[in-house]
Amino acid sequence: MTIFEQIADGVQKGHSDSVGALTRNALSQDIPAEEIMNKGLVSGMEVVSEKFKNNEIFIPEVLISARAMNAGLDLLKPLLVESNVKPKGKVVIGTVKGDLHDIGKNIVAMLLQGAGFEVIDLGADVPKEKFLEFVKKEKADILGMSALLTTTMLYMKETIEALKEEGIRQNVKVIIGGAPVTESYAARIEADGYAPDAASAADLSKRLLGK
Ligand code: B1M
Prior knowledge:
With 211 residues, this protein is α/β, with parallel strands linked by helices. 57% of the residues lie in helices and 10% in strands. The protein has 9 helices and 5 strands. It has a 5-stranded parallel beta sheet, sandwiched between helices. Helix 5 (103-114) crosses helix 9 (198-208). The longest helix has 24 residues, at 59-82. The two termini are 28 Å apart. CO-5-methoxybenzimidazolylcobamide is lined by residues 59, 93, 98-105, 107-108, 144-146, 148-150, 175-180, 195, 197-198, 201. Residues 59, 93, 98-105, 107-108, 144-146, 148-150, 175-180, 195, 197-198, 201 line the site of CO-5-methoxybenzimidazolylcobamide.
């Protein structure tokens, strides 16, 4: 196995210690950080993402793999920033106001990160003012909103209306998801896309930015 395959394998198995050690080893061989990230960490997380989509693995395994991926990513981050490697895009994400469910949103954030996006996670119970503030401040390419309650999903529409009122709706793609959310609801509130699960959210984001 190449060192990239070993890193990818470590991510899939959720072995944080070995992913960290292998990432250090790869760096000591002067392999560029971007290559380690893409061919090792992201490639491993893509397999995890696919298996999650196909119900071959479940939330605990995804969380353990994400932790292993982060063990490598933490070592690469300073180098990636230094070498100015551009992420695929910037995503501001959060669970909407009134809603404390964040497990699904966290997985979406992790898989987006695993797919090469810079992710700014605002947490749960996020008011529209905060979404707007961060979309503007961070010049986000994508705003991701999650909702798990039939009552709180209505707040997604309010946030999109607020983006329009602020005159910045055209600057950002809006994607939404969460158990009660549907494709037709997304169309109705004029979101740019809906994803039924975390892996699809990463695919959708790449598609929307033409990556
Ligand atoms: Co709540 N809860 N809960 N809950 N809870 C549900 C959602 C519910 C369906 C349970 C039920 O009654 N059967 C129900 C909602 C009913 C409805 O509105 N239709 C419900 C209720 C009623 C409530 C309370 C009101 C209960 C009460 O207090 N009386 C209360 C509300 C609190 C609040 O938010 N204000 C409440 C509280 C809680 C806990 C705090 C105890 C806990 C949340 C803990 C936490 O998140 N930190 C909780 C939990 C765990 C659940 C269930 C059991 C599981 C949710 C979950 O984490 N699923 C849930 C029942 C269920 O869904 N079966 C339920 C796993 C997660 C990986 O899936 O979040 O769907 P999910 O995310 C998926 C996709 O939806 C998608 O990708 C994810 C990964 O594949 N996705 C996106 C999610 N966000 C996305 C964003 C995207 C794209 C895709 O783009 C940006």
